[in-house]
Write a structure and sequence with these properties.
With 312 residues, the chain is α/β, with parallel strands linked by helices. It has eleven helices and twelve strands. The longest helix has 17 residues.
């Protein structure tokens, strides 16, 4: 029988997600609907549904936006070709790319311009990876695993650099980079790691929970990379873990023999979903619900320039 729920801190929204969601909200308020958004603004179905109800229209491609429409680029960033396509259709655009993703784009572009083969550590098919690779597709090679790093062959081993997706497993990425450093002693990399502060902090908070809980619940959508990584961190630490969108996906069979449940949420999951899960446990008699180690993040990103100017 569950006696307590321990909350990880920090959890939930990061500064980049807050900025992206507020960008769509402000655009709707300032320009009125419809406001088109390329792909999901952040990887959370609840957020997408809420914004859709307010007039946001999520599209797969710039081709799906009528000429002169207002288009927001998601927090995950886009390849330069997408911007060219938007300009060709005379679309008005607002860029909600997370500044930490923009940093990775700039690094990849700079290394490629200097004649380096650029290794991008990341997951194939993720929108952030597609955007980064689009900065210099002829120079960037994707590495997804330690095995990929061991097999990697490049034209000039003396001129190789790496960047990473911002939402990876900290431990797994460290292993991959260690292999690259061993195989390519001249490897260059970012002065400050590309994995974002929020991803790192949420994984650290989960690790702190593991010795106190028998089960970890992670609130997040299936396509949320940072949420998936939290599940992997728990399982790697020997604790059962499940990814859920919201309280109605809870399965009471998971709770058999469990006294203490850990609860966290990915960087694109709003806190109200955490409250919903807490209420689910309260309705079943659990009265001890608290943060294990309270922690705060104070990172803030300004809104895109287009929204800091008065509407025309």
């Amino acid at each position: 029988m569950v006696k307590r729920v321990l909350l990880a801190a920090p959890r939930g929204y990061c500064a980049g997600v807050e900025r992206a969601v507020e960008t769509v909200e402000r655009a709707l308020a300032q320009y009125g609907p419809p406001v088109y958004v390329r792909k999901q603004i952040v990887h959370n179905s609840h957020v997408v549904d809420e914004l859709s109800a307010r007039g946001a229209v999520f599209v797969a491609s710039v081709e799906d936006v009528p000429p002169d429409g207002l288009l927001v680029f998601s927090a995950h960033g886009v390849a330069p070709a997408v911007r060219v396509g938007a300009a060709a259709r005379s679309l008005r655009t607002i860029d909600a790319t997370c500044p930490l993703v923009t940093k990775v784009h700039a690094e990849a572009k700079r290394y490629a311009a200097e004649g380096y083969t650029v290794v991008l550590v990341g997951h194939a098919g993720h929108e952030e990876v597609e955007g980064t690779m689009g900065e210099a597709p002829e120079a960037i090679v994707l590495v997804q695993s330690v095995d990929d790093a061991e097999r990697l062959e490049v034209e000039d081993p003396q001129r190789i650099a790496y960047v990473t997706q911002t939402t990876l497993s900290v431990d797994e990425t460290r292993e991959i980079v260690a292999v690259l450093n061993r195989r390519f002693p001249r490897l260059r990399g970012p002065e400050k790691e590309d994995i974002c502060y929020a991803t790192t902090n949420r994984q650290r908070a989960v690790k702190e929970l593991l010795e106190h809980v028998q089960l970890l619940l992670v609130i997040g959508s299936a396509n949320s990379s940072n949420s998936q990584r939290l599940v992997e961190v728990a399982r790697a630490g020997g604790v059962a873990a499940h990814l859920i969108e919201r309280d109605r996906e809870l399965d009471e069979r998971w709770l058999r023999g469990v006294e203490t449940v850990g609860l966290t949420s990915g960087a694109s999951a709003p806190e109200l979903l955490v409250e919903g899960v807490c209420d689910w446990f309260r309705a079943r008699g659990v009265t001890e619900i608290r943060e294990l180690s309270p922690a705060q993040e104070n990172v803030f990103f300004r809104l895109p320039a287009e929204l800091r100017r008065p509407a025309a």
